[in-house]
Amino acid sequence: METKTDKAFHECYRRRDVLRTYIASRTHNWDEAEDLTHDVFEKLWKNRESILPEAMEAWVYRTARNLVIDVVRTRMVREKAAAGCCDMSETSPETPERNLAFQELRDLHMRLINVLPPKRRAVYCLSFFEGRDTVHIARAMSVAASTVKRQLLTARKTIRTALAESYQKYG
């Protein structure tokens, strides 16, 4: 026998295409909207017993809104960091020396990535180059999110330390 909670869940799930369109209109990325829609329903499924059936639809849209805000905020931080890291023209004119230094830094970064253990390297690359969050990486690699966080933390620390040592050594 289907309970009120089950009926409310199935009704929300039946209208998932509308939710996906809502999310896509805010993220401007259909694939990301698909992932976030999945995340919303995964959270709903885990919390369905603690949500009033009458409030379930509002909960779904509030959760979607919060996930979109997180994604957009993360995207803005990454774009700001990339602009600050790669746009050298704001701080000083582009020179052959600066271009060479930037290329050497990029090459060192790639060498450091390549010496990471394979799984740690995969986690780092998915995060750094593809902008994936820990939940998506964990799902893609079939591991716990806490494992991804730990691997990412270790990879970043290893690379940051090696870059700092190189900078101190070579200026």
List the helices and strands and how they pair.
Blueprint lengths: L3 H11 L1 H12 L2 H18 L8 H31 L9 H19 L3 H11 L5 H8 L3 H26 L1
Helix pairs in contact: 2-3, 2-4, 3-4, 5-8, 6-8, 7-8
Characterization of this structure:
The chain has 171 residues and is mainly alpha-helical. The protein has 8 helices and no strands. Helix 6 (118-128) crosses helix 8.
Question: What is the helix/strand order?
Answer: HHHHHHHH
Number of helices: 8
Rg (CA only): 21 Å
- Structural class, judged by helices and strands? mainly alpha
End-to-end separation: 71 Å
Largest sheet: none
Could you give the count of β-strands? 0
Structure, briefly:
With 171 residues, this protein is mainly alpha-helical.
Write a concise keyword list for the protein shown above.
171 residues; mainly alpha; 8 helices; 0% strand; elongated
